[in-house]
Write a structure and sequence with these properties.
With 616 residues, the chain is of the alpha+beta class. Among the domains are: 142 residues, Winged helix-like DNA-binding domain superfamily/Winged helix DNA-binding domain (Arc Repressor Mutant, subunit A), CATH 1.10.10.10; 138 residues, Rossmann fold. The chain is 55% helix and 12% strand. The strands form 4 sheets. It has a 5-stranded antiparallel sheet with strand order 4-3-2-1-8, with helices on one face. The protein has a 5-stranded mixed sheet with strand order 12-11-13-14-15. A 3-stranded antiparallel sheet has the order 5-7-6. A hairpin with a 2-residue loop joins strand 9 and strand 10. The longest helix is centred in the middle third of the chain and has 24 residues. It starts with a strand and ends with a helix.
């Protein structure tokens, strides 16, 4: 049976959603939900029915159900406000209310798509058409093979020390926040069930002079070692230690579930250990170790070439390296293209493939970069890492509201990630929503009181966007902070106390830094915008000679300090120079500021003029 909803076709036989004849990437679990709702469109489908059919009766949180419903709506062009197709009946369930028509083509008693090619319609089909209950089961198994039975996990202290007990309790609480626990993929047991658990964490800690040393060990059901790692922090940074344990351990747990799901062929235990070590290192990545991490993931896929999570991790590491850490050489780009080609042969539908394609596109080719990123998001709508990267690019093109939505989603999907929370704070700040950014910081402070990552996020927000005097208090406390160079110091002093002398010193330092290194264009742009020197900034950006470093400019263009700069119609010529204008026109996705009530020009009209003479 085929169900047509607007321009979409739900094909039960192929377990597929198509739009205008082309398959729409969708998770099997979400497809199963859609089939269930459409087939039962004449009545309300309760939450209990959804859980029984989609999750095999396992305990599932309301947020997990809402997330799948939201994704199903998005696939069909619906949303939670309009509820044009899928209606929520609060406290009871969901109902498909959109217009549905049934279509079928019969060949020897077999239902075929009437829009399929003639040769496909003639081909004999040996498998009878499946009912929705069977498809729901298949979709669930495809969604996560190991979830036919939730993986059970325990955490216990490895010794009776006070430090071990405290860290074990905190680690258990943080694991309880993971998405896998909330959607039923895994279940936390108390210590009395440790002998029956599939996976067991042992937490050991001891005070050694001015430091606390901790060791985290993961064992399987048989008590065999899967992974271990040591951590060490000063006593005063206990929250940093707890954060490291939770985030690293959580990532390793996610990766362990992936190895459990790999049934054919079974992974060699040494490959499992290699993969888990790489996952742990990636959780604690720095600019210096990212290359070693990539090499480790490469070894994993060399030994286990059909292990797709290994490929996905390698692709993500490559994309992050191209985007975040350094200026790639031709050799680096060639290596990334080689990995991309190899991964496409394994499975061209992996969402990290378009993610890496986006990173390989020239920085001025924003249309291509965003198109690839949106493909990645559609393919994996609940991946916190992809959502965070998507958010960063949305900020670069001025789509601030959507950037905030993606950044906050990345926190929801990966609540233990310090990087995602920092990104959410800055996205809110750049969007001018400083009170909400401060609330996000307070939420992070509840989780990790006094943690360095929380202090750094607060300082960075106040340095560039929020209360500069608050940033000054952080700076004067003596605690190490990012961006503490003398150049940034004079900028902060001028923001906190904008006397003519302070402002001139900040401007002089910003110009000197830019003269030494062109990638300091972001700091120069922020400084000139902050102190209303737009006339100096326009010629610099209109003649920007580094097309391979456009990101250094777009990182700052949509911050509040450059509001007056954007409100000058010449900004559209700058946007044309940087490749932004071409993206806005081709995609139809115009930046938020174009809808400001006080904008003194029409974006589309100025855009057309700027593309005719971008340097005029």
């Amino acid at each position: 049976m085929l169900y047509r909803v607007d321009q979409y076709v739900l094909d039960l036989r192929k377990f597929e959603l198509r739009k205008d004849g082309c398959p729409v990437p969708a998770e099997p679990q979400v497809l199963s939900l859609l089939f269930l709702l459409v087939e039962n469109r004449d009545r309300l489908v309760s939450k209990d029915e959804l859980i029984d059919a989609i999750w095999d009766g396992r305990a599932v949180s309301d947020s997990a159900i809402s997330s799948r419903i939201k994704t199903a709506r998005k696939l069909l062009g619906d949303d939670g406000d309009a509820q044009r197709l899928i209606r929520t009946v609060h406290g009871k369930g969901f109902r498909f209310v959109g217009p549905v028509s049934e279509e079928e083509t019969m060949v020897d008693g077999i239902v075929l798509d009437a829009h399929a090619p003639a040769e496909a319609r003639k081909r004999p089909i040996l498998i009878p058409t499946l009912g929705v209950a069977a498809l729901v089961l298949i979709g669930t198994l495809l969604w996560a093979p190991w979830q036919t039975k939730a993986v059970t996990v325990t955490v216990e202290p490895a010794s009776a020390s006070q430090e071990s007990e405290a860290l074990a309790r905190d680690f258990t609480a943080k694991l309880g926040m993971m998405t896998g626990v909330n959607d039923g993929a895994m279940r936390l047991l108390d210590r009395t069930g440790s002998e029956k658990a599939d996976l067991r964490f042992h937490v050991d800690a001891s005070a050694e002079g001015p430091e606390i040393a901790s060791n985290l060990v993961l064992l399987d059901r048989r008590g065999e070692l899967l992974w271990s790692k040591g951590f060490r922090q000063p006593r005063a940074k206990l929250s940093d230690l707890k954060q490291q344990l939770a985030y690293t351990g959580g990532k390793v747990l996610d990766c362990t579930l992936e190895t459990i799901a790999e049934r054919k062929p079974r992974l060699d235990p040494q490959v499992v250990k290699l993969y888990l070590n790489a996952c742990a290192a990636y959780a604690d990545q720095t600019e210096t170790n990212i290359f070693d991490i990539e090499r480790t993931f490469e070894k994993v896929v060399e030994v286990a070439p059909r292990f797709q999570p290994g490929w996905r991790s390698l692709l993500l590491a490559e994309a992050s390296t191209l985007d975040d850490y350094y200026e790639p050489t031709e050799a680096d780009l060639g290596r990334a293209r080689k990995i991309l080609a190899a991964a496409q042969k394994i499975n061209p539908a992996m969402p990290e493939i378009p993610l890496l394609q986006s990173g390989l596109a020239p920085q001025t080719a924003m249309t291509d970069r965003m198109r690839f990123l949106e493909m990645a998001v559609r393919s994996s709508p609940e991946d916190g890492d992809i959502a965070m990267i998507h958010s960063q690019y949305l900020l670069k093109v001025g789509r601030l509201k959507e950037a905030v939505a993606e950044a906050t989603r990345s926190v929801r999907d990966d609540p233990l990630s310090p990087a995602n929370r920092q990104a959410a704070v800055m996205a809110l700040g750049i969007a001018g929503r400083v009170p909400e950014a401060e609330q996000e910081l307070r939420d992070a402070e509840v989780l990790w009181p006094g943690a360095s990552t929380v202090r750094e996020a607060r300082f960075t927000l106040y340095l560039r966007i929020g209360d500069a005097k608050e940033a000054m208090r952080f700076r004067e406390s003596g605690a190490p902070m990012p961006s503490m160079s003398p150049y940034v110091g004079s900028f902060l002093i001028a923001r906190a106390n904008p006397t003519p002398a302070n402002v001139e010193l900040a401007l002089r330092d910003a110009r000197a830094l830019y003269a030494r290194t062109p990638i300091a264009i972001s700091h120069l742009s922020q400084t000139l915008g902050e102190f209303h020197r737009e006339e100096e900034l326009f010629p610099i950006l209109l003649n920007w000679p580094y097309p391979d470093k456009v990101d250094q400019v777009t990182d700052v263009l949509f911050r509040p300090a450059l509001n007056d700069f954007r409100h000058d119609p010449r900004f559209m010529r700058v946007a044309a120079r940087l490749g932004l204008l071409q993206y806005w026109q081709s995609s139809g996705q115009w930046p938020d500021f174009c809808f400001d009530a006080d904008l003194p020009y029409d974006c589309k009209r100025e855009a057309a003029a700027a593309l005719r003479s971008p340097r005029a």
